[in-house]
């Protein structure tokens, strides 16, 4: 008798491993292409690091690696939704789920591996969001700032205007050894309130590559109303890190800070003093975003975890699951924005995933199935009939009457 019980338990374990393996494989099949597409879009937005600053492809690949941790936590939960719903739907179509139910197996055999996978991915998301993403952001910003700071001293051709970024142009007449530049001309249109034009006989870049010191020159400032002021200077320091402002720059903002800093921010930090609300919102985002993988796993189980006939499924369960996932994620973003407005909303980012998880867990515990609201079903039916009538009413080519 004990041997029979052990055989049954071993069979159940094998079944759980089988379900977990299939879902994880589908999860990877979904995650890798989507992550690659989004990653490529993000990387191509910074291709000017190579074309403008003369960096090697190795440096560009390093920058791309720094960008990757910033998009993994966003894509991962949705890939999990697709992996779960697609796998369970395929198992239902292949009669695997009906056979499991007919054998009298507990629903935990299906629920347990999926919930464990959701918990594991939530923990992984927490580690990436709080301990990998912030230093990656800082490293990427420092790399871009250093590349553009070195642009004047090593890349820009003599007597040629070069666009550093939108609204910022530089020309150098001569370049000498020791980071010494002659005939510097800088045009800065980035501020919408006024235009700046710098002239200088010579200048030099410091050893750290962060400051251009211009000597014996003048600044022309033109305001929006057309008034022009001219200021002559003996020495003027131009911050080269400002050239990378659109790419992130050197200052560390709330998204670049460590979790320890967000938990106990330095009240004397100038950026924190300027925008303490953004730091509060970032802290609660970090501590709540990692809950979404397990939430989406439970929601996917509610939608696709039960045996259903083909007549019951007019729309693929993945469509419903993704729709709910996007709605929950949007509510999460909105809740984080509310925290930035007022500290009374601090609990909102946690309420969204926790409430969705509790509702999904209740439906699983009571064996309730997700059903499409009647008004949505009627709307989809009307849309389908309307499309069908349009195609039926379309005249065929060459269809004349004799």
Radius of gyration: 29 Å
Write out the strand line-up for the largest beta sheet, numbering strands in chain order: 1-2-3-4-5-6
H/E element order = HHHHHHEEEEEEHHHHHHH
> How many domains?
2
Give the CA-CA distance, first to last residue.
83 Å
In terms of per-residue confidence, which ranges show pLDDT below 50 for 5 or more consecutive residues? 244-249, 396-402
Shape: elongated
Q: Quick one: biggest sheet?
A: 6 strands, antiparallel
The percent of residues in helical segments reads 55-70%
Alpha-beta content class: alpha+beta
Number of helices: 13
The tally of strands reads: 6
Give the amount of beta strand, in percent.
5-15%
Mean of pLDDT:
81
Task: Describe the structure concisely.
The protein is α+β, with helices and mostly antiparallel strands and 402 residues long. The protein is built from 13 helices and six strands.
Core attributes:
single chain, 402 residues, alpha+beta, 2 domains, 6-stranded antiparallel beta sheet, 13 helices, disordered C terminus
Describe this protein's structure.
The chain is an alpha+beta fold. The protein folds into two domains: 282 residues, no CATH class; 91 residues, no CATH class. It is 59% helix and 15% strand. The chain contains 13 helices and six strands. The protein has a six-stranded antiparallel sheet. Strand 5 and strand 6 form a beta hairpin. The longest helix is centred in the N-terminal third of the chain and has 43 residues. The termini are far apart. The C terminus is likely disordered.
């Amino acid at each position: 008798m004990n041997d029979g019980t052990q055989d049954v338990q071993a069979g159940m374990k094998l079944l759980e491993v089988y379900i977990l393996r299939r879902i994880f494989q589908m999860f990877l099949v979904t995650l890798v292409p989507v992550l690659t597409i989004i990653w490529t879009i993000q990387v191509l937005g910074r291709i000017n690091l190579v074309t403008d600053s003369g960096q090697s492809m190795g440096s560009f690949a390093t920058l791309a690696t720094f960008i990757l941790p910033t998009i993994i936590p966003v894509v991962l939960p949705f890939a999990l939704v697709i992996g779960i719903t697609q796998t369970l739907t395929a198992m239902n179509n292949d009669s695997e789920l009906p056979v499991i139910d007919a054998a009298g197996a507990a629903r935990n055999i299906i629920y347990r591996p999926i919930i464990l996978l959701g918990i594991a991915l939530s923990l992984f998301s927490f580690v990436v969001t709080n301990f990998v993403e912030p230093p990656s952001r800082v490293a990427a910003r420092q790399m871009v700032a250093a590349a553009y700071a070195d642009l004047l001293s090593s890349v820009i051709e003599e007597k040629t205007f070069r666009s550093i970024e939108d609204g910022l142009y530089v020309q150098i007449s001569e370049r000498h050894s020791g980071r010494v530049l002659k005939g510097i001309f800088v045009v800065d249109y980035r501020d919408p309130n006024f235009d700046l034009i710098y002239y200088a006989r010579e200048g030099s870049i410091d050893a750290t590559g962060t400051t251009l010191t211009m000597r014996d020159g003048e600044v022309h400032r033109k305001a929006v109303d057309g008034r022009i002021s001219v200021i002559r200077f003996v020495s003027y320091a131009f911050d080269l890190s400002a050239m990378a402002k659109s790419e992130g720059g050197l200052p560390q903002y709330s998204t670049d800070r460590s979790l320890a800093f967000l938990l106990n921010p330095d009240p004397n930090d100038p950026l924190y003093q300027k925008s303490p609300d953004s730091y509060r919102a970032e802290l609660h985002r970090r501590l709540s975003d990692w809950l979404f993988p397990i939430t989406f796993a439970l929601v996917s189980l509610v939608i696709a975890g039960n045996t259903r006939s083909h007549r019951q499924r007019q729309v693929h369960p993945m469509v419903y699951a993704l729709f709910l996932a996007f709605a929950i994620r949007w509510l999460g973003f909105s809740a984080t924005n509310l925290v930035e407005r007022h500290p009374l909303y601090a609990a909102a980012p946690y309420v969204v995933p926790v409430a969705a998880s509790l509702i999904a867990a209740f439906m699983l515990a009571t064996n309730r199935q997700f059903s499409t609201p009647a008004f949505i079903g009627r709307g989809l039916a009307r849309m389908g009939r309307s499309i069908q009538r349009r195609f039926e009413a379309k005249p065929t080519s060459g269809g004349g009457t004799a």
